[in-house]
Specification:
This protein is of the alpha/beta class and about 180 residues long. The protein has a single domain (about 5-175), classed as Rossmann fold. About 40% of the residues lie in helices and about 20% in strands. It contains seven helices and seven strands, in the order E-H-H-E-H-H-E-H-E-H-E-E-H-E. Strands 1, 2, 3, 4, 5, 6 and 7 form a seven-stranded parallel β-sheet that branches. The chain is globular, with a radius of gyration of 15 Å.
Length: about 180
């Protein structure tokens, strides 16, 4: 039987970077489906793992990263999806959730072989994390309504790439744990 991790990617964001305005606009649409997925995870046997950029602050804790996001330009996009108590947390420094992180080890130690990758940015961190999960032998699920692009056209191309090149299952967030 497949064991699943829901990976929430880069949602603790202060939105103070170059492309933050179009990204924040696109994130608005995924908050409710993502929140539903996070809540459904607690009712399932899936593990909830937040993977977030540390923005090159190597002294930052998960609480520091969350606080910086809440003090950023769009706390209304952060507050509904803050990590619930008991969530796992992995810091990253580049686009992929796997690159130079402990994520692969964490998933294997916990006996997980299926990953649901949600969050932002579809055509960057989500895409690269999905590729790294695929080449490591994980089954990949992308909840279409719980990933946000900067550029919708590139985001759609990334979803097609994940589906066709990485055998990702692309489903609504409400079906991601099925």
């Amino acid at each position: 039987m497949s064991r699943t991790a829901v990976i929430v990617t880069d949602m603790l964001n202060p939105y103070d970077h170059e492309d933050s305005d179009p990204l924040a606009e696109n994130v608005k649409a995924i908050i409710e489906p993502l929140k539903g997925l996070i809540e459904a995870t607690s009712d399932s046997e899936a593990d909830l793992v937040y993977v977030n950029d540390n923005y090159d602050d190597f002294t930052a804790t998960s609480k520091d990263i969350g606080a910086a996001a809440m003090n950023g330009k769009h706390p209304e996009l952060v507050e509904p999806i803050l990590p619930p108590k008991g969530s796992l947390f992995v810091q990253k420094v580049r686009h992929s959730a796997f690159y130079s992180t402990s994520l692969d080890h964490l998933l294997r130690v916990r006996g997980l072989d299926r990953v649901v990758i949600a969050g932002q940015v579809t055509e960057q961190c989500v895409l690269y994390s999905a590729l790294d999960a695929y080449v490591r032998g994980f089954d990949v699920v992308i909840p279409r309504d719980a990933v946000a692009p900067i550029d919708p056209e590139l985001g759609e191309a990334a979803i097609k790439m994940m589906e066709h090149n990485m055998s990702a299952q692309v489903v609504p967030a409400a079906e991601a744990l099925s």
